[in-house]
Protein 1
Amino acid sequence: MVIRMSYSRVVEQSDQAIRELTEAGEQILGYIYPHFPLEIAMAHGLLPSLVRTSPSAGGGYESSLQTFACSLTRNIFSQRASGHLTTFSGIVFSGNTCDSLQNVGEVWRKRFPDDKTFRLTYPAAIPSESSVTFLAEELRKFSVAIDSEFKMPFSEELFKDAVALISEIRESLQMLYAARVLSPKLLEYSTLSSLITGFLTAPTTSVLDNVLEIRSSTMEDLEMQVDRDLVSELQNAFLRKDLMDIGKFDESISIRLLLVGGMIETNALSEFLKSVPNFSEDMIILDLLSYGFKTAFTPSISLVGDPFENSARAILGSLGEPTQEGLSDRVRFLKEILSKLSINGLIICEQSFCDPDEFEAPSLARAAEDLQVPSVRLPIDPELSDRVRLEGRIQTFLETLM
């Protein structure tokens, strides 16, 4: 059973979980960019965990950072500078995803030289065989660096165990996403968000047990309303990023919202939206957030062949970011979702000072406008520091849809 909590409580509980795992002898490898090779880290005996932002951190000015730093990286850096960041055995920064994540990693190494930091470079190109080859080689280098730093070599057995565990968690989350599209009242968005949070905190068997419990009860209730095959059909369509063969959905719910953009955790957004007058969680049909849908809908890794190449192929097969996927394909998929899922309202989340978000948002808004779907842009930061103004924008937006 998932207990509903405030986002501050979620962060506190996640930190406590990491502390308990550390005390139990686990070595925790923190990561920031969501398309992270979880299975590779676990093959070295490390437990991967998202480096979370904190709603109480002062993410504004920090003397070590220049204007290239987005609000997310400022928040995380400020936690480390003040000594409030969860203790990780090491932290992985990404390259070629955005200037902020790459440059803050460089500043971090200078400011905190005793921290174990790693860089994993992603291909800045639309997925192809050459980009798979490039990322596979980077994953190999990353594996060598982990072995060198921790003296923990890559284990084929641990890799297979990790693939099995993570695949089952993701497949269950995918089913829950598809089930919510079919019947949003069946599963609260905040409950799904809590499951995502557990997975990001640490992909463990206890997390799997929790996800399976919710999946079992949700699917049992859903089967009383619709054919279970519809869930699998929609789940597979999302994985293919092609909804053309999906029939148009029932429009009995007057407001059907899609959330897109922003490296914001689903729990944070869910808690914020619940505070908006006249808002109901069943209005949210789907999210395309970095820490939501994109976390769940990463293809399973094949165990036949080279583990690094297969890992690279799976990572690049997920719904990515602008640098990995290309804007035209993302806009096409967005339009299919807006049309096929009968979406009548688009909420575009823009992480403050995030270039990928800021550059992409106008194209997303135009895509919705082409289909006569109203949209609203929300400039957000990890602290949701401008809550009153944001609540006002959402409330006004909802009134235009009623």
Note: The beta strands are 27-31, 46-50, 90-95, 117-121, 257-260, 284-288, 345-351, 375-380.
Protein 2
Amino acid sequence: MKNTLVRDIVILGSTGSIGRQALEIVDRHPHRFRVVGLTAHSNDQLLIEQVKRYRPQMAGLTGKTITPPGETSFCQWYFGAEALDVASSQLSCDDVLVSVVGMVGLGSVLGARKTGKRVLLANKEALVTGGQLVMDLCPQDAQAPALLPVDSEHSAIYQCLMAAKGNPFDHITLTASGGPFRNWPRERMEKATLDEALSHPTWKMGQKITIDSASMFNKALEIIEARWLFEAQPHQIKVLIHPQSIVHSMVTFKDGAVLAQMGMPDMRVPIAFAMAYPERIETNTQPMALETLASLQFEKPDMARFPALKLAYEALKAGGAACCVLNGANEEAVNGYLHHTIRFGQIAQVVAETLSAIGPLPAGSLEEVLEADRRAREVSARIMKQFSREGI
């Protein structure tokens, strides 16, 4: 009979930063977790090493096909879209950690929930593009939540609300490091080089999310996520720049009390919180010594320098598939910037013009969300080509 203390976990995106740190948690608590499925995009060498170490029932690569080595014959291998479908929907497990990047995360979340698995969510696109679809499958149950956020900011808010005992909040505050351009004038930001944009002062992340942090589109996406995770109205979601990244987010209540979740910037904390919920387990994270902190700074973000935040609120107000369009256009624009097609300052401009060009679209089904995403990418690509021709 299965030990009820052991949770079977599938990790989608196991070779990425979140996936690797989740496996560190497994290593520290092998009596609590059993890895039954692993998927990666294209890092087959690391995935093979992980398969040999954790001996899952299945493994998959979404970005390439390989001949699995003979020493992994105990494991069923899948490739392409089938890998995520099998891992999220068909494999028997307790938890699915969704740490893949992009729209594929939405299908994986929906597949996991439709088959009764708890989702540990480290993918922004699922809620940003299909928030209503996801939350319709996630009944509110504090004792047995269907979905737990892994992003440090949303995990912080979740933890603060655990102490609220059902009392409604006045508003929530997402903190942001401010990225590498926190004190840059707008004119300098407009022409920031790729190396400058990738030099994050606090976190070590993949290229796309690092660029999003520099533009604050990561915070724009988190505003949208928070609307769904916490049933918050847009006016109840605020953002403060906090360069120390010690206060991970805050909740303000009707009586004026503010609860904040604090700690050293280490993603193993929110990952472990989600994996072991409702228990807290050791993570080997450096303890925070408050006496060593010279100061904690907070400042309002400049919407003119970081227009992504304004675009998020506008997309929420527009409703329908506007947030999906924002996400798709931003992904295309970031890719254009990474490939030197547009300047840094044009990322938000591409998104704004795409939203304006497309207008209202429905988002009542997965098919409608995917169509909105397709149109967003098509239109944003056309806008970027126009920028290139004009030499802007």
Note: The chain has three domains: 7-149, 151-315, 319-392.
Protein 3
Amino acid sequence: MLPVLFRIGSLRIESYYVIWGLSLVVMILWTRGRAVKRYAIDFNDATEVLQWVMIGVFVGATIGGYVDHWSRYAASPVRLLYFWESGLSSGPGFIGGGLAGLYKLRKLSLSINNFAEAASIPCAQLLFIGRWGCFLEGCCLGVATDSPLGVRFPRYPLFKVYPTQLFESFAALAIGICLLVIERKLNRGPDESRRGAILWPLFLISYGLYRAAADFLRSGDRIFGLRVGQYTGALACVIGLAWLVISLKNLGVMRDERRSDS
């Protein structure tokens, strides 16, 4: 819709990079603030972990972009060297960032659960803001449709497509609001969160289910009939369910211990 925000001479300031960059900055600062104030993680430790997370996000999202458009690179393998053309894929980006963050948290002997809780709501916000960059750029398109929900992008004027970028944006907003309500209702301290994460598993489950279902409306390359986002969404859902079960079990044990002490 608006791929170029403005120009400075011959330099193009593109909507996609500005909005995704803004969303990443907000996510980093918000996660760090929550980690320090709400989950008792040292400021410098939180900063160091987030640096690793950002590197992992970039690597994972870039690799995901290659896989997301595998037919392009199968036709011309030399284009694998042009990493700036790969685009970015959010699902593999989350996997890359999660693995890098997990590595650094273990190295620093920090609570994985507490940091994950701190990142849960900011990650939903990241998608809420960032997908507007995709919408303005005209990437991550939906399949063609005659539905009233269809949108006609300037670069594809002959047909309407589902605005799947906005579908995901509003889904992420709803997920973030629900997590915020749950967090305030539970009102858990860092000691309880350390024994078991609740918000992060719920984020993985809800976002994973959304991607697994909604990516049928997305256009693009498929592997065995499914998009990369559907595979990563299903994986996120499984991990989230397992994480939630373990957390609830650990929290149950903690409550039993408190009753026995009293």
Note: Residues 4-261 form one domain.
Protein 4
Amino acid sequence: MKTSIRIFHTNDIHSNGAFLKKLHAYMIREKRPEDLYFDSGDIIDLQSPIVQADAGISETSLLVECGLDGIAVGNGETDLGHAELTALVKHFDCFMSANIGANDGTPVEDLPASRIYERGGIRILVIALSPYYNEHFRSSGYNVFTTMKNLRTVPPEEPFRRELERRKGQYDYCVLLSHSGHLIERELMKRLPVIDLCLGGHSHAVEHYPGYTQSGKGAFLGRITLEIEDGVIREVENLQIDLPEAEDEAFDALYREKAAFADRVLSEELPSLGALSFDPFRESPLINFICDALYDAFDVDLAIMHGGISEGDLTPPVSKKSLLETFPSKLNPAVFPVQ
């Protein structure tokens, strides 16, 4: 008897509400009980007010409404920090990562390395990886940022192999759900030939070929069709779908609800001592304040910040909303030695 299942895939949505609306309309209409939908991470973007309101819970719930079955922890999610990521993982049972933990090596509580899904008479093992190498394959390329928030990734190959051994005999098909970047993922597929399909992310590439797919920066929906006959599994389709615009009143109502909640939370006034003026071309109190804060928060000899971080003066009343408007680009501090 011949059966088929479809695996849908997205990556790097970065809180793009317009894409989520198109995705929701399509998935509600097209996804069947035997299908699966995975995301390779970075649904979270700290520039989004909806993310800032409750540390990603509302944002992730929008993706879950699209029929999500599993998601890898990307660097967008690690930007939240250890406590917030732990809370997010406890709220949703779809997150996975085999190679991320706290700085002391302890795992993130309730975060599994993998999951097994049974569809079409086969068992599909999905192992997730978070970014460790940078695009030049330099080790620990992201820990310079994440360790300051009590999160660190380790080289992915050994955790992947450990998970394979732990799941030995429990699966028929192996999927790597990765937020590592196309070039890194291509190399991992060579080093780990047991991978039947890699669902990639992080580099915002648009790539699809047998055994691999990555769908840009929330640009396309990947669709891979597997055909199963007499225990043999074949990939018979690997597409990138340019989702059409669609009316979706249910999603619109849900999005308005999340946005209104975010506006209420972020508009609450914060304590402030007064205005901080800004000049992009001269020394200014606002940039000095940021440098002083970084200097006090971390064990460093010097703190530097570029003037382009701000859009203008910071004036009372100050709220999280006004902070986002003044500093629309996320601030990722990094500590490094200067020789």
Note: The longest strand covers residues 232-241.
